[in-house]
Amino acid sequence: MRVILASQSPRRRELLTLVGIVHEVHPADIDETPWPDEAPIPHTERLASAKAQVIATRNPDALVIAADTIVVIDGAILGKPTDAGDARAMLGRLSGRTHEVCTAMAVAIGDRVHAEVVRVQVRFRTLDDDTIARYVQTGEPMDKAGAYGIQGYGATIVEHIEGDYFAVMGLSLVTVVRLAARLGVSYQFGPLAYA
Predict the structure, then answer these.
(1) How many structural domains compose the chain?
(2) Could you tell me the CATH number of the domain that includes residue 69?
(3) pLDDT, tens digit, for every residue of 25-45?
């Protein structure tokens, strides 16, 4: 079955490849601005669903997988940093504290879409200003929600995780397989196929 990942994320591509799901990449270009008074969980689920719908409309024969990841602390959404100063501020805010990573997955075929949000608790070790500055200099924080990547250098600042590690990376594989099954598509430890 033809599978499309509606994301440019190299991490999401790697994860699908890790479990043998051959896929094309067609990033969805949508407005990701939160609606006024939109809570974090509905926001990320709306974005993942919208990404899946945009690509599925153009490719009605394909199974489309989309995702959106946000970091939430003190009720505020931390997206991707705008610059190095923003990254340093985010990391300083997360230092020594627990935050929540929320990754929404959406799977679509034609006009049928199923979505789910996976929430993971992540705690950082306490970081001094020098450690934060050196981490930002690696460049790793710049394209990641919350300004860190758990699968890279960021693994050295994460003290504890409670939940789906792959969701923190940006794509809960078990959730994708479960959502695909709702659309009649089964995972065969490699390719996806109609059940």
Answers:
(1) 1
(2) 3.90.950.10
(3) 999 999 999 999 999 999 999
